[in-house]
Design goal:
Order of helices and strands of chain B: HHHHHHHHH
Strand content of chain A: 25-35%
Number of strands of chain B: 0
CATH superfamily of chain A: P-loop containing nucleotide triphosphate hydrolases
Radius of gyration of chain B: 18 Å
Order of helices and strands of chain A: EEEHEEHEHHHEHEHE
Oligomer: heterodimer
CATH class of chain A: Alpha Beta
Distance between the termini of chain B: 23 Å
CATH topology of chain A: Rossmann fold
Structural class of chain A: alpha/beta
Strand order of the largest sheet of chain A: 6-7-8-3-9
Number of domains of chain A: 1
Structural class of chain B: mainly alpha
Largest sheet of chain A: 5 strands, parallel
Shape of chain A: globular
């Protein structure tokens, strides 16, 4: 089990005068699957982006820790795996090239065996040298999981993880979540009942 | 950080080779701008000071047509989030700046060569002063263009906003560069041009420092 800790302290967000959510407090430690749910427009994706450090909260703070050591924002990106419907990979490159570039930019060794194994798990190995632009939406969604898992993140953030996936793809994802969550924290933002059913705790967001 | 920024630069370079986002528009603009000047001058003789000024006009507008692509292409393709998830803001800025630096130098070398070949009046008498002016001005142009590109990439009307926002920011650099280029054509010594050179050095340092300080805020929503 990981000693990763994620704390949200009085987190609020508004866009201009529109309040999205306010005063959220949560604390996730070690491992397990946690959920964020709520109606459309309640701020699920916004909260997950704030947790990832991509957006800033309007008030409050998000603290990421490993043991007692607080992780500085500059180092956060290498500890987080992120999947969302609005995540787009570089379509002019192949899956393999994308993964190689990401490893270099993250300054980690490109693990060819791991890349091949993940591509195999998500049924993309045969298409690894094709440009991402030629993939179907389901294949692109599966590719995002490989992008999120390649650097062995401590925290996995999944925004609508099963969108665009067929039953086979969904089963692969659920198996992956089960495997990863035994050692690390997985947070799912979704409205799908089958996704939320995996979670031990869920933050319910209301629409203001 | 440097190896990460270099990796990002290589990614952009490979991407540019495949998509030709910036190179095509830059090449076309340079060709069109120089042709228009040539046709409008015809057989007329133009003063040396005007030749130097027109040289920087071509550089300014060529930069406006191609340098915004560093960030705008990421925003248009929807890959900004991907970039935010794989690198820190300082790495991203350094990588993009490196890409724009290479692009600015290549673009301006092509412009300078074409200009020298096509305009008889464009004769540089203080060659080393010109090289120094050229290098310092290109640094300033690349730094300013990169940070302005980051700002406008989040805006709706990117195409119009880029030259409008760039003009006041680049004006001190362009004016000083025009003056120094005139000095180079007249044959002024280094000593006589040191104030103008100092202005460009200060501009570069201020823009670089301000850009690194501001980029964090620009990059996050």
């Amino acid at each position: 089990m990981s000693n990763y800790q994620l704390c949200g302290e009085a987190v609020s967000k508004n866009f201009g005068r529109r309040l999205i959510f306010q005063n959220l407090n949560f604390r996730f430690t070690g491992s397990g699957v946690y959920g964020i749910s709520g109606p459309n427009g309640a701020g699920k994706s916004t909260l997950i982006k704030i947790i990832a450090g991509v957006n800033s909260p309007s008030a409050g703070k998000i603290i990421h820790k490993i043991g007692d050591k607080v992780i500085i924002p500059e180092k956060l990106h290498n500890l987080i795996g992120f999947i969302s419907p609005y995540l787009v990979l570089y379509e002019e490159f192949s899956a393999w090239e994308n993964l190689e570039f990401f490893a270099r930019i993250r300054n980690i060794k490109f693990d060819k065996e791991k890349a091949a194994s993940l591509l195999g798990d998500f049924l993309l190995y045969d298409r690894k040298d094709d440009q991402v632009r030629t993939y179907s939406s389901g294949m692109k969604q599966r590719m995002k999981f490989i992008f999120a898992l390649m650097h062995s993140p401590e925290l996995l953030l999944l925004d609508e993880p099963t969108s665009n996936l067929d039953d086979e793809g969904k089963n692969t994802v659920y198996k992956m979540i089960e495997r990863v969550s035994s050692e690390r924290i997985v947070i799912i933002a979704s409205n799908e009942r089958t996704d939320i059913a995996l979670c031990t705790e869920t933050i319910m967001l209301a629409k203001f | 950080m440097h190896s990460k920024a270099f990796a990002l630069f290589l990614k952009d370079f490979r991407s540019e080779l495949r998509t030709r986002y910036a190179v095509n528009s830059l090449a076309m603009f340079i060709l069109v701008a120089i042709s228009v000047i040539l046709f409008s001058i015809g057989q007329e003789k133009i003063p040396q000071s005007l030749t130097g000024g027109l040289f920087w006009v071509v550089i300014f507008f060529s930069a406006m047509s191609g340098l915004a692509r560093a960030f705008v292409s990421e925003e248009e393709r929807g890959t900004t989030l991907t970039l935010q998830l794989i690198a820190s803001p300082s790495t991203i800025f350094t990588g993009k700046l490196l890409f724009n630096l290479i692009l600015v130098f290549l673009m301006n070398i092509v412009i300078a060569v074409l200009y020298s070949a096509l305009f008889d009046e464009f004769v540089i008498r203080s060659f080393y002063l010109f090289v120094l002016t050229f290098v310092l001005s290109n640094f300033g142009l690349a730094i300013s263009s990169t940070i302005i590109a980051a700002i406008i990439s989040k805006a709706g009307s990117k195409g119009t906003l880029y030259p409008v926002l760039s003009f006041p920011i680049l004006l001190p650099l362009i004016l000083t560069s025009v003056q120094l280029t005139s000095n180079c054509m007249v044959g002024t010594s280094f000593a006589e041009s040191k104030v103008d050179l100092a202005v460009i050095v200060c501009y570069d340092v201020i823009m670089l420092t301000a850009s690194y300080m501001l980029f964090d805020f620009i990059w996050k929503d």
